[in-house]
Amino acid sequence: MAAEINYVDVNENFRRISLSGRLDILGTDSIELKFTSLSVATNRRVVVDLTAISFLASIGIRALITNAKALQQRGGKMVLFVGDNAAIAKTLETTGVDTLIPVVSDAVAADNIALA
Amino acid sequence: MSLSVVNLAAELSIRADARELRRASAWLKRTCLEHSVPLEEISRIELCLNEALANIITHNGTNALLLPISLHLDICTNQIPKAVTLIVSDSGAAFDPLAAPLKPRPKTLAEAEPGGLGLLMIQNLADNVSYQYSDGRNQLTFSVYWKEDK
């Protein structure tokens, strides 16, 4: 399954980005540039929806961290929404990403944390 | 484990190419599912396989890219704990990933640097990991164990 990326702008400074498929080397390569261009902007708040990710390798995690860090440096904030995707939540926990970027299973809470 | 009864031993040879990772993953998942390996354990060993192959393609040099990577899979379900063991073998420069120091975990996003997560994932997801260099080949072996039918 190819990786896909879509987004919805809630308002000028708040964007929801949905990733799906496999974030292995091929999948991450296919969405990385677009992911960066969609997520990194001054003061932008971003919720990244990972509920439809079927596989998250370290290269995909690196893309999440790199963009979350770049966004933070520009005064913005990224939140990862995992819903009931337990496998992805566990991968994020195993790698300690959940201590760096908020990982949230509830959609409303994800929005609230991003906007806080 | 002192004694392993192997129910299945399977082999796959792949090119050192990112596109081959998906073929290797599909083979691993299909074989494990056919032998009733729980999904959680399949997920763990699939991630380990992906990270091991990504490391070979990225870091193990020209020889690793020119010659096939060998995968040997053992599934042992007639014992407690049950086990899946995968041996990944490549012809790249000798490199013991277990001897490489793990990066200290960043405490904040500002401190985080890209890289170094693959080995961390293997060490945290596998229940046993070992490495040897033999006959000009790196051999990384990792296992996942489980006790009950899930």
Quick synopsis:
The complex is a heterodimer of chains A (116) and B (150). With 116 residues, chain A is of the alpha/beta class. Chain A has helices at residues 25-39, 58-73, 86-94, 107-115; strands at 4-11, 14-23, 45-56, 77-81, 103-104.
Task: List its traits.
heterodimer, A: 116 residues, alpha/beta, Transcription Regulator spoIIAA, 5-stranded mixed β-sheet, 4 helices, 5 strands, 42% helix, globular, B: 150 residues, alpha+beta, Heat Shock Protein 90, 5-stranded antiparallel β-sheet, 35% helix
Largest interface: A-B, 25 and 28 residues
Number of domains of chain B: 1
Radius of gyration of chain A: 13 Å
Q: What is the count of structural domains of chain A? A: 1
β-strand amount of chain B: 25-35%
Number of helices of chain B: 4
Strand order of the largest sheet of chain A: 1-2-3-4-5
Q: CATH first level of chain A: which class?
A: Alpha Beta
* Main structural class of chain B: alpha+beta
Give the quaternary arrangement of the chains.
Answer: heterodimer
CATH fold-level label of chain B: Heat Shock Protein 90
Largest sheet of chain A: 5 strands, mixed
What is the average of the pLDDT values of chain B?
Answer: 90
Order of helices and strands of chain B: EHHHEEHEE
What is the annotated CATH architecture of chain A?
A: 2-Layer Sandwich
Describe the structure.
The complex is a heterodimer of chains A (116) and B (150). The longest helix of chain A is centred in the middle third of the chain and has 16 residues, at 58-73. A 5-stranded mixed β-sheet of chain A has the order 1-2-3-4-5, sandwiched between helices. With 116 residues, chain A is α/β, with parallel strands linked by helices. Chain A has helices spanning 25-39, 58-73, 86-94, 107-115, and strands at residues 4-11, 14-23, 45-56, 77-81, 103-104. Chain B is of the alpha+beta class and 150 residues long. Chain B has helices at 18-34, 39-59, 61-66, 117-125, and strands spanning 8-14, 69-76, 82-90, 128-134, 137-146. Chain B has a 5-stranded antiparallel β-sheet, covered by helices on one side. Classes of the chains: A alpha/beta (116), B alpha+beta (150). Chain A binds chain B through residues 22, 24-26, 29, 55, 57-59, 61-62, 65-66, 68-69, 72-73, 87, 91, 94-96, 99-101, and chain B through 18-19, 21-22, 25, 40, 43, 46-47, 50-51, 54, 57, 105-110, 112, 114-115, 117-118, 120-121, 124-125.
